[in-house]
Amino acid sequence: MAGTARAERPGCADIATLAADALRREVWLTPKPGLVDSANNGSHRDMDLPLFLRSIDAITPWLHQFFTLGQQDFLHPAQAMLTRIRPTGIACEQAMFGATQGVNTHKGGIFSLGLLCTAAGRLTGQSQPLTRRRLCAEVAAMTQGLVERELQSCRQPVTAGERLFMAHGMTGARGEVQSGFLTLRRHVFPHWYSETHPERRSLNALLRLMAYNPDTNLVARGGLSGLHFVQNYARRLLTSGWQKEDLQEMDQALIARHLSPGGSADLLAIATVLMAFPQ
């Protein structure tokens, strides 16, 4: 397949650069229904494209640090890594909040991409080649039991993620990393090269994520009905075929309902990174 032949086999330490580039590509991608892009601010009143770019600049050095920590600690058990990288994750979030004056632009992205960069560091330390399969498996190993520890055992929910788990059983980003990015492996990767143009490829991947990802951002804003509205809309476009004008109409529909599929945007950036590696 011509697309997979790219297998862009980047230098192992470059995964942090790939991650930062993926975040920039995601925010510039237009039109993205309900999300900040180069055309508008989507369903957000406190975010715009320049704010996202400042946030990415603040996050980027820490992505390299996640890789370094993974490489240094590759002999530690995988299950120990989440605790070991948590201070770096907190520092990265603080850098983001400093750049955005307290606006949460990339907290979910920091969590997932930080784990992905750490996984790459560990595999590099173990002299294993980086592949999508190995990276996903290592992230799953590092987060084994996370849902049980942080969600199922929670009796007094404080965060939005804890409340959504208690109300609807939704595991959000925690469930996605613990599963080794199952949503991507099941619904996005097999269809990645069905589009040949890079922009349509990314938009199609985003549409597939909106169709199948149980996005807690949507439920937090619009309840289960908001999630089902977006999923059904995206599935109709995937079935009938879509053009940019269809996504622009979907954008207006989501803005009118104050819906923003932020979890799917995070997963799009992760997919972009992982698809740079061989299977």
Automatic annotation (TrEMBL):
Its EC number is 2.4.2.52. Keywords: ATP-binding, Nucleotide-binding, Transferase. The keyword Nucleotide-binding applies. GO terms for molecular function: ATP binding; triphosphoribosyl-dephospho-CoA synthase activity. It holds the Pfam family CitG. One of its GO terms (biological process) is prosthetic group biosynthetic process. It catalyses: 3'-dephospho-CoA + ATP = 2'-(5''-triphospho-alpha-D-ribosyl)-3'-dephospho-CoA + adenine. It is an enzyme of class 2 (transferase). InterPro entries: CitG (IPR002736), TriPribosyl-deP-CoA_syn_CitG (IPR017551). Gene3D superfamilies: Triphosphoribosyl-dephospho-CoA protein (1.10.4200.10). HAMAP family: CitG. Belongs to the CitG/MdcB family. This is Probable 2-(5''-triphosphoribosyl)-3'-dephosphocoenzyme-A synthase. It comes from Rahnella aquatilis (strain ATCC 33071 / DSM 4594 / JCM 1683 / NBRC 105701 / NCIMB 13365 / CIP 78.65).
